Each structure stands twice: as C-alpha cells, then as structure tokens.
Predict the structure.
Amino acid sequence: MDINALEKIALTVRSLSMDAIQKANSGHPGLPLGAAELGAFLYGEALRQDPADPAWPDRDRFVLSAGHGSMFLYALLYLAGYQDMTLEDIKTFRQIGSHAAGHPEYGLVPGIETTSGPLGQGIATAVGMAVAETMLAARFNTPTRIIVDHYTYVLVGDGCLQEGVSAEASSLAGHLQLGKLIVFYDSNRITIDGSTDLAFTETVAQRYQAYGWQVLTGSMYDFEDLARLTEAAKAETAKPSLIILTSVIGKGAPHKQNTADAHGAPLGGEEVAAAKAALGISGDFYVAPEAEAYFATKRTTWQTNRRAWQEEFQRWSKENPDKRAEWDRFYAGEPAQGTLPRFAAGDSLATRTAGNKALVALAAANPNLVGGSADLKGPNAVGIPDAGVYGPANRGGRYIHFGIREFAMAAISNGISLHGGLRAFCATFMVFSDYLRPALRLSALMKQPLIYVLTHDSIFVGEDGPTHQPIEHLASFRIMPGVLTLRPADAEETAEAWAMALERQDGPTILALSRQNLKVFTKEDPDWRKKLRTGAYMVKKGADVPELVLIATGSEVTLALEAAAMVQGKVRVVSMISRERFEAQSKTVQEGVVPPGIPVICCEAGVRTGWERWTSPEGIFSIDRFGESGPAPKVAEALGFTAQALAALITAKLRCA
Amino acid sequence: MDINALEKIALTVRSLSMDAIQKANSGHPGLPLGAAELGAFLYGEALRQDPADPAWPDRDRFVLSAGHGSMFLYALLYLAGYQDMTLEDIKTFRQIGSHAAGHPEYGLVPGIETTSGPLGQGIATAVGMAVAETMLAARFNTPTRIIVDHYTYVLVGDGCLQEGVSAEASSLAGHLQLGKLIVFYDSNRITIDGSTDLAFTETVAQRYQAYGWQVLTGSMYDFEDLARLTEAAKAETAKPSLIILTSVIGKGAPHKQNTADAHGAPLGGEEVAAAKAALGISGDFYVAPEAEAYFATKRTTWQTNRRAWQEEFQRWSKENPDKRAEWDRFYAGEPAQGTLPRFAAGDSLATRTAGNKALVALAAANPNLVGGSADLKGPNAVGIPDAGVYGPANRGGRYIHFGIREFAMAAISNGISLHGGLRAFCATFMVFSDYLRPALRLSALMKQPLIYVLTHDSIFVGEDGPTHQPIEHLASFRIMPGVLTLRPADAEETAEAWAMALERQDGPTILALSRQNLKVFTKEDPDWRKKLRTGAYMVKKGADVPELVLIATGSEVTLALEAAAMVQGKVRVVSMISRERFEAQSKTVQEGVVPPGIPVICCEAGVRTGWERWTSPEGIFSIDRFGESGPAPKVAEALGFTAQALAALITAKLRCA
C-alpha cells in the first residue's frame, strides 16, 4: 500500500470537491472532504474494477449511498480514469449537460452503479447487488473455475442509517448472510440540523450486531486501519460487515469542519482559500501529480486483472458450453417468450391466479427471472414451485422471501436488476405500493425493467376495508414518468400482460391484478393480442359507428360488458390495459378504437383523475372516496359501483346524445 | 388480580373472535386467539380508561398496531362496555355498516384510538401519542396537581417490527426517552408466508436495547408475568419498554395453532368446533358470564377513577385559571387567527420563507401548534425561534427534530393529532413526500388536520437534480381523497394558505412551497383573500370577456404574468391555489373565473394529469418527464418551461380561436 500516493489521492478529492462546489455555488462538501481517505483507499487500493471496461460483469460494485456527496465519486472516477468523467465535467459540476450532476445518476456515466440521493436507498440497492452476486455465483461457478466473485462496497452516512429502508434491508442482509457486502459508515455525527445528538443517539453498532452483521470500528484517517478492517470484513464470509469510521465532516476546511455548515453548502471563497493553504495546495482544481501517476500504474494492474478474468472466463466457457450459453442468455437482455398459458372463454379465475400461471411459464423459459413478495407469496400468487427459495443454504434459489419490508424489497430488486444478468420482479398488495413508492421512482428514473406485481387492485378486495382497498393507486402509477401500468381484464389478457412486462427493457412495469375471480370473456377480434399492445382494443365492437364507447380497465371490463348487455343501443366496449400506452398511439390508431364525436364513458374502480382526457366529468364512472369493509359485491353496492348504475349512466348518455 | 376472571375474558376473546371470523368467512384469527391473555390483562387489569367517557383526555391509550387482529380489539371493547361496540356488531363483523370493520377504523367507534392495518404505522402513531402526553403534561401539570399522566400501550406483531417505519419511530422514541410508552410484542414467529425463519432472524431484543429501550421478556400466558413485566415497564421512567411475549399464533385451535394457516383465514367449522371442545365451551358467540360480571364491577372502578380525575381537574382549574383557559383553547379545535404577516407588492422571497413568517405568527397565537421537520429545519424554513426544542430535557418544547425519518415523522404527527389537545405540522422536501405517503393516506382516512409543509416544490429546486425535483407529486396529492393541496403563488398567498390549513378541521393539508424567490405581485381584486378560499381567483382580469384564460399555480403564476405581458390579446391570469377546492365550487363560481367557451391554458411545473378537465391536451403547459441537474433557470430552459415558450403557446392559441 502506497500511503503517500493514497494521501495525494485524498488531497485531490478534497481539492476538486471544494473547487467544483464553490464554482457551481451549490453542492455538499461535507462528505467528500470528510471521507476523502476512504475514497482514496477504495479506488486506490480495494476496488477490483477496470475503467477501460466499466461494464466488466465481475467488477466490484461501489455504491455511494450518501449520494449528496457526489463530488466524492466524481473526483475518484476522474482520477481512476473513467473516460466519461472529465475534468471539464467536474468544472461544470451541477450544470446542464455535465456528467457531474447534482446527485450521481445511473446511466449518465459508467462507474455510477446506481442513482443515489434519496437517503437509505443506496444501501438497500447494494443489498440487491450482493444478492445478485451470490445468485450468479451459484449458477455459474464450478468447483474449478470461479468467474463470479466480487464484493459490494457501500458508503453510508448518518442519514442513510436513520431511514427505515436501510433498517429493513440491513435486517434482511443479515438474515441472508451476505458475507461479501461491506458497508463503510462515515460517522461524522453531523446532519443538516446539526449534531446527531438532536435526534439520533441509538447505538448503531449494537443494532447491526442484532441484525447478524459483523461490526468493526476504526478511524477514517488511518489507511492501515482501513486496510486491516477491509481484510477483516472479507475474512468474515457468513456475515455482512459494517465498518464504523469515526470521521470529521468537511475535514480540511479549517473553520467549518465538524459543523453542519460544511454539510450542504459551498464553503465560500475565503474558507476554500484557508483550506487550500492548510492543505498546502494552490490554484484551482488542483490534481496531485502523484495521484495521477499512481492511477496510471493502477490502470495497468486493473487491466491485467480484468484480462486474467477474461482468460479464465474463456477457459470456463470452453469447459462449460451449456453454462456459457446460459450466461449469454442471462446477459442478452432479450427474454425468451416461453409458452404462455392458454385459457378458454368462460374460465373463471382471478387475474392474480392467471398471473401466477404466466409467471411460472415465463420463469421456466427465463431462468434469470428472480423475485418474491413482501410476505404475500400466496395472496399475491407469485410462488414458482420449481424455482427454489433463495437463502444462505440455497444461493441458486430464485424465490426471495423479502419479509414484511415492501420498500426494501423494491430497492433490493433495483439492485438485482442493476447488477446485470438477472431480471427481477417483486410483489405486494397494490395499496401497499405506497410503502415502496420511492424505490419505484428510482426504478423509473434509472429505466430498470422491474416488474411490480400488485394484486388486490381495487375495492373488490372486500372485507379488509379502506386501508387495504386501492383508490388512488392506479392514477398514482400513471402520473409517474417512465412507469408502464398494465391492468389486464381477464386471464388471457393477464398472460399477455406478463409477456409485455418481460419484453419491456427500459423501465418498470406495474401488473395490476385482481383478487376476485373474473370470467374469461370472448374477444370478437382474433387479432386482439396484437392490438392489446397498443394499450386498448375493442372487446365488443358494437357497430362500425357505435352510439357510445365504453372504456374500462381490468375487472371493470366485465362490469362494462354486463352493463352494455343491459341497455338498448350500439355500445362499443373497449378494454384499455394501458392508458398511457394508448395515449402514445397515433391519432389514427386512437380514433380507430374511440371514434371522435361519439359519447364516451370511462369506467374504473378508482379515482377519476386522468380520464378527463377521454370524456366529460359526467362520463366518468369512478370511485372518488375511500372504500368500505364488507364482502366485495356489498362494497360495490354501497359505493354505487355496480353494473346497474353503469347501465343507467349509459342510458342517460344515449338519451342526451 | 382476579386470574380466574382474566382467564374467562381471554376465553371470551377467543370465542367471539373465532365465531365472528367464521361467520364473516373472512378475517384473522391468529392474533386474537394467540394474544387473548394480553387483551384480558390490558382491559381487565392494566388500562385506565372509562367506556362511559371514551374521550376522557387522560385515559390510557391502547394501539393495536397489528390491526389485522381487529377482533381482539372488538371483543375487548364489547366486554369492557363501549356502547358502540355491540354483540350485533361483532356478529356482523366485516359487513357493511358494522362497527366491527375489517381493520380498526378511527372514528367508527370510540375506543379505537387509531386506524391500523398498514403494518408498522400503529407503533409509530403510538410514539406520537406518547410524545403528546409528555408535551401536555409539561404544559399543564403543576407541582401539586397532576392532570396529564397516562400510558400509551401498544401491541405489535412480527410484521410491525419488520417494517422500516417502526424502526424509525422506535429509534426516535428511545432518543426521546418516552418512559410511558409500553409496547408488547406478540412474538409468535409466524407470518403469512410461514415461519419468521424465512426472513426475520435478527435479535429484536438487542436491536431495541440499541435504540435505548428497556427490553423485558416473558410468556403471553402467565398473568403474573404480564403484571410483573408491566410494573417493571412503568418503573423505568426514562426509557420506553418493549415486552417480548413468547406466544402461539391461533392458540386454542388444536390443529392450526402455531401454523401460518391460523393467521389470516377463518379456521373452518370443524376446527372451530374442535377449539370450542378443547376450550370447554359450546354454542356460538359464547360470552363467559364471569367475564361480564367482572367488567360490570370494573366499570364502577373505572368510573370512580375517572371521576376522581375530574375532581382533581376541577381543583386544578380553580387554582390555575390561566392554565384552564389554555386547556380549553387547546381542546376547542378552533385555531386563533393570529396576526398574519403582511407583504408588499414587489417584495421578493421564497414562499417557504413567507411560510415561516406565517408559521411563527400562527404558532404564537396557537401555543398548541407543534411540529418539526425530517432534518430540514432550515431548508424547509419551519423553525419557530420562541417555541423551544422538544426533548427529554424540555418536554415543553414545541419544535421536534424528527431526524431523517420522513415516514415515522408523519405517523408520529398523526399520533400527536389523534391524542387530542395539539395541532401538528411536519415538513420535508416535496419529493420525499413519497417516503411518508402511507402515513398521509392514514391522515386522510382518519380526517386528521395535519399540516404537511412540503418545500422545494418543483424543478425550480435546480442543482440537486431529478432525484430532488418533484414532477408527479402535486398530482399525487390531488388524487388522494380528503387531502387539501394548497400551492400559494407568492408570499401574500402563502400567509393565507397557512391560515386556511390551520382552519381546516377535517383532514390533512399540503402546503406546497417554493425554494426560489418569487416577487409579490399586485392583485387587481381587493377581495382576493376571500376568493382565494374558493380555490382560485383572478390575479389579472384581462377583460370582462377575455380572449384567453391562463390558469397557473404557485410559482407558475409569476411565469404566467410574465408570459401574458409578452403577448397581444386580452389574457386573464388565474391563480389556482387549490384545484380540488375550485372544482368543488358551483358552476356559477367556476364560470365567474373561467368563463365557458373561451380558450384555456393551464400552466404548472408538474405532470399534466388532471388539467385535462380544464383544457385540451394542447392547452396544458406542463412537465411530463423527470428533471435535470442545473441552476433553476437553466433547468427550465432545458425542459422548455419558460415564459417565452408559454407566450408562444398563448399566441398560438389566440390565433386558433
């Protein structure tokens, strides 16, 4: 270990961070200055990766969970030689077009493993990466050839450890015995409001021991200590490790260090000057030549190591052609179509049940599909009999018992997806999607193709009552950019919806599924499967020029068909599996289904918001209040959400027209 | 302690629960059967309350955090003599109109202290109740007269303790040294998926010790133990207590107890019969006469105790007339108007800053207004200089440092509000409202008048980038039933918005406030303050019959005024502080502001959803993608969200019309 070089790297992290933040007049110097030594150690010594091949599958992952300290990461990526992070990017920190965005953004620059900033999620996402590593290792390594074998390193701050999602994920990580997860806790005891004494006085070490972690402590500013602790973390293979590093926020800023002032605002020109004087540097954006030289050599080592892996990978490929073929399928991204289950008109089953049949079929065709539920395996119907349960004793298992931890489940699933090689799904009751919403937003922001199986998708949940009946949730998914919401109307549509979800590569998909049984209905159009993919199709055409178009989603298509059968008049019934996808179609496609100038009624067991695009307020048959506890049909009656009421509305509309 | 009677109470809880769930063919027998002894002990022995006066301010609170075990609570409320919980209600468990709803619903029956069911929130809400007790005790007790002195009891299960929100709240409860919070952990080690070994193997006791709690352990089925443990919990006045009770889920059901089958489905007729035989009872809905007799006597004791308190309260009132007057104001519900800050046209300040001035003024006029932020006191601008910081050393403090725990913050605030006597606000960045959304939903469902101060309400956050820029959030509040969203456009509107939020008694209010400075604009209508309360008013009338109506909210009103000044044509500019409130007005009021048949443009720095009611898709000036990192004006430029672009849209619309 070249301590002198590491010191110069730390110095450079401080220099670049101070100046970039000062120049941007925005940013968080506290972490990059306070944890610069850890950064120097990680990138200069510990991490096994290669800037020349940032996507190398077996690289060590590093997650900056405390994403506000983004300059920490940018300075190190630049020094390490990630080509897309230039000094110019750093000089334009937090400006439009710079790769050095306000918070680390996945996809903007190779080397950023996840978007972070929303606190607590980074470490939870890293848990997912560590899970993925063990899954792939179990699948691909052989007794003689190890091709999946990397660590997942994380830097967390006080903020991350106060958030509930980190608690959920850490408890599960301990249970899962993720021995290759190594978390450094930058314990500076300062948050925005001031000292952690204001709100955070628990004993973190004891808490993590309770989770089943190895807990180590040391100083942020002793490289020997960092090396020793990291070795100890690696030596403990049955427990994740938390390394608590006592640190000083904003270290190096003579007047502001160890105060909340250093956390989230530029230090100010005077303080920057004083810091530079104290650090013995002059000029702006100073990069220590020793740091540059060190990484120049390091890059050779990294490349050598990566090439050694590639040679091993070639040997493994030759010896294990089947595994290699599977590896290629895992990393290809294109899912296999599989043999979707078929249903017959008149079959009566819940779409969650049909979803299970599709999931089982697709999981058989796509062995890289993994996932689970937040303790609702049965109710969500997401069990995969042949997939095995993932755990310390069975790393090859593909079903994950996430426990009653919806938020961590989704963040961990993000991590599994980000890792590469695997496709992830996760499941809970739709109403509890509120618990995981921040992770869903990150799935969308990072364009991760997660599949969210959300069952019990309306008041037809019944007896569990308003706390368990989604009302605003379908609308809540549709308003989030990049999310695809699919609400299939019967078993046949559900199988297609699962295929559509798996086909999607560039963002998360919600599968909104019913608790209650629904009869498979007859589709007039033999080409409905193709048209379904436009977001909507005619279940019942009514006439070439109908008198009224009745648009419904999910279980309400059945309601719409019932109502249409009760009235006089040429009523067209449309199943709109995805409003956002249909709204993205050409006007021609849209008008082929919903002709202009004809009265429209929209029917959905949820709030009306968003349907105003398709009809007048009076034409929306919706539920704009919380639900009730009772058997589902009685709840529907109590809320006036019945086929009779819908038929009456249709008749009234027909009369007006 | 009459152990025989307590046993009969437990027997009755089992009997009623089994039969009610069986009759409903829906429900969760596992908890009521498994924890019946604790229920008997709590209601038969520990709780100090009075069914004859369920609103008695100094009653002990009991929160069934594991709300799915609702029959546990209903059986006990019935036995204890809460008049609104009848045997008929229990016989119609989970039917429309029954007071025995699927999950306990606040407001349906006195004796239910909070709605529970969404796991983890019950205990967090209870933390808020315990906080409120200490605040009121500090305010009203005197050295010689104690009128606020009660415990907050909670029952949690494995599920509650896996959820992150309980972790956040428990950490804070330990920090706050809430010695009168006593949590019983029904540790049956079974969840829906099966054994807790599947996902939850941490050492809970050690974790709670790390939080600074007293942890005690014992058996669910030993009344002496329960009494001893409860006394020990009370004896520890500087720490909350977690009492871990080893239990058997579904105890009494001979074949299903200790299995996941007992958790969430009726036992089945055969198993109910077998259980009854084993318990030595026959007939349906059996109520042990000894239990009835015991509570008949108990009610007298309860009444005597409550009357003793009332006498003490009268003595206290006489000796402390000022305190009594304050008490009455605290419990009246009607807030004092205070002297709202005034601003002058041309003043330039962020609405968050204006909000702070209003908050300080209203807090001075309403000493029962308490709250805080999730570590963003400065950025959210919610400090109240004279209010003091709440904590173990200052129970009279009114500002709460919640730490970086948004979800627990909101759930705790629900508890403070539910306790009675206090009004609560809480604050974070708007984008992180996602973290607390499940608690916001409960605020709405329970009609609690919480005030959510959500600052940094758009892409004009700037440099922090897409993770910190709300896009879909305003829409996300508006779709939730019972939530009032106020987005004031300048400092003057902000002061009024705070007053409107405080006036509201029947549900939560969102105050959406800007990070960036906004100039106070001139209002043409002297009566604007009154009209603001209808949800929208004309900032600039344009003409009696304008050529175009430009509706904007919040900071976009300034943008709208700028754009309107750039174009030729009679443009009316409307500030719509609350779309939902305006949509609830009569057609006359609405058309007085937005006349029919005139082109409309809606302008908001967020998704378009919901604005379709007011204009065609082309008339919506919105942001339907995630943001960018950069200085706010540059972000707006990058997204095409500028006054110039809006002016161009207006001009185009005017030409078409």
